C-alpha cells in the first residue's frame, strides 16, 4: 500500500488520478453551469453537483496530504538534475495551494447566506460567515481565475510528464500510471521488509 523508492504505491496512484479526474470534471461543469438560464433543468442541479464534487475533492486532497506525511515519496530519478527536482516539487506545492484556495473560495460563496455546504442532501460543513453580494462577486472572480490558473498548471504538469516519457524516455510517467510496473528496491519494499522481519524472528 505504501510508496516504493522507484514508484508510487496503489494509495498514492488512486488519490492522484481521482483528484485529477475530479478537477477536470468540476472545471468543465463550472464553465458550463454559469451559462445556463434560470429555466434550464440543470440551473439548480449543476451548482448542487459542483458543490458536492468540491466537498469530495476537499476530502481527497486532505487525504492525499496526510498520506504524503505518512509515507515518503519515491526517490527522485537520478537522471533529473537538482533544479528540475526542485521545480517539480514547487509545481506540486503550488497545485495544492491553488486547489485549497479554490476549495476555500467555493466554500465561502456556497455558505455566504448562512446555509451549510451540502454534500448532495447532507449538510456537511456549516457556514462561518455571512457575506454581502460584493464580497461574493469578488470571491467568484478569484474562484474563476484561480480555476484557469490551476488548469494551466495541470496542463503544464501533464505536458512535462509526457515530455519525460516520449523525449527523455525515463520512468517519470510510468511510476504514477495506475498499471505502471517498475521494479522496486527490496530494501524499501514494505512487503519484503515485513517478510524479512518474520524470517529474522524465526531465526532467533
Provide a descriptive summary of the structure in words.
The protein has 204 residues and is mainly alpha-helical. The protein has one domain: Fumarate Reductase Cytochrome B subunit (Up-down Bundle). It has helices at residues 10-33, 42-70, 82-110, 133-168, 190-203; strands at 117-119, 122-125. It has a two-stranded antiparallel ribbon with strand order 1-2. Strand 1 (117-119) and strand 2 (122-125) form a beta hairpin. Helix 3 runs antiparallel to helix 4. It is found in: Cell membrane. This is Cytochrome b561.
CATH topology: Fumarate Reductase Cytochrome B subunit
Order of helices and strands: HHHEEHH
Which CATH class applies here? Mainly Alpha
The overall pLDDT, averaged over residues, is: 90
Secondary structural class: mainly alpha
Tell me the number of structural domains. Answer: 1
Terminal-residue CA separation: 28 Å
Strands side by side in the biggest sheet: 1-2
CATH architecture: Up-down Bundle
Largest sheet composition:
2 strands, antiparallel
Task: Name the overall outline.
Answer: elongated
Count of distinct strands: 2
Percent of residues in helices: 55-70%
Amino acid at each position: 500500500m505504501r510508496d516504493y523508492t522507484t514508484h508510487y504505491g496503489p494509495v498514492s496512484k488512486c488519490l492522484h488520478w481521482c483528484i485529477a479526474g475530479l478537477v477536470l470534471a468540476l472545471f468543465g461543469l463550472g464553465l458550463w453551469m454559469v451559462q445556463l438560464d434560470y429555466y434550464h433543468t440543470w440551473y439548480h442541479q449543476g451548482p448542487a453537483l459542483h458543490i458536492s464534487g468540491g466537498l469530495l475533492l476537499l476530502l481527497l486532497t486532505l487525504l492525499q496530504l496526510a498520506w504524503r506525511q505518512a509515507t515518503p515519496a519515491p526517490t527522485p530519478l537520478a537522471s533529473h538534475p537538482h533544479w528540475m527536482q526542485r521545480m517539480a516539487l514547487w509545481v506540486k506545492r503550488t497545485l495544492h495551494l491553488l486547489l485549497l484556495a479554490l476549495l476555500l473560495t467555493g466554500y465561502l460563496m456556497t455558505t455566504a447566506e448562512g446555509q451549510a455546504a451540502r454534500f448532495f442532501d447532507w449538510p456537511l460543513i456549516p457556514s462561518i460567515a455571512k457575506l454581502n453580494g460584493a464580497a461574493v462577486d469578488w470571491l467568484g472572480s478569484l474562484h474563476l481565475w484561480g480555476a484557469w490558473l490551476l488548469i494551466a498548471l495541470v496542463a503544464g504538469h501533464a505536458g512535462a510528464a509526457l515530455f519525460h516519457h516520449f523525449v527523455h524516455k525515463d520512468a517519470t510517467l510510468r511510476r504514477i500510471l495506475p498499471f505502471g510496473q517498475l521494479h522496486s528496491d527490496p530494501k524499501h519494499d514494505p512487503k519484503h521488509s515485513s517478510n524479512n522481519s518474520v524470517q529474522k524472528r524465526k531465526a532467533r
